[in-house]
Amino acid sequence: MLMTIGQFSERTGLRPKTLRYYEEVKLLLPEVRSENGYRHYSDAQIEKAQLISSLRQAGVSVADIRQFLSSDQAQKEDLLARWRDEAAAKLLSIQVAHQFLNGLDSQTKHVHLVYWDHPRSIVWLPLEVGAGVAAWNCSAQDYQRRLSAIGLEVERSSYVRFPQDAQSTRCEIGFVIASQNIPPDQQVEKYAPTLFATLHCQANMPLPCKPIFATVQ
């Protein structure tokens, strides 16, 4: 049985304006378009219309939905896996923002939020922070030169992270790299586009950033 756009709107819960938009972007075409221009939809299109609406509500782009609808099963599974990763990154961003705002007051310093709008790779180097600032800084600069020597482009700024063990004198310094050809002996972690909480510090701070980390923890 065919339905008018008004009837189809009632069955699907989607506004006629939305259905016309789906037609305009070629996601859902009416089953029949009469000579007088009236749109008619079939029962079989109800599930498809609701799937499109659900994916849009989940933040999936029109282009991705169009690709999904025309893909085979394996391709659909790949798209779903990517969308899940993207949703997880968005959820993490919301959690980070919530924690940041809960801990923020007019006296807060050093802690900032940074958004990466594209995937990044960071190569990490373990360092002994108890060796002193000069030795730590020299090691970091030497490692940066070695990365450049093997053809890895690195950003000027770097990142520092400490283990959960408060007694540890070890840390890791990380450089964001642009190269895709990463030697297998390098400790590299890939990060999806998301929001990060960072602590801004200078290399000449005593035991770089560790007092601030302790305060935040």
From TrEMBL:
Lineage: Bacteria, Bacillati, Bacillota, Bacilli, Bacillales
Keywords: DNA-binding
Pfam families the UniProt entry points to: MerR_1 (PF13411)
Domain of life: Bacteria
Protein name (database record): MerR family transcriptional regulator
Cited InterPro entries: DNA-bd_dom_put_sf (IPR009061), MerR-type_HTH_dom (IPR000551), MerR_fam (IPR047057)
Domain called HTH merR-type: residue spans: 2-71
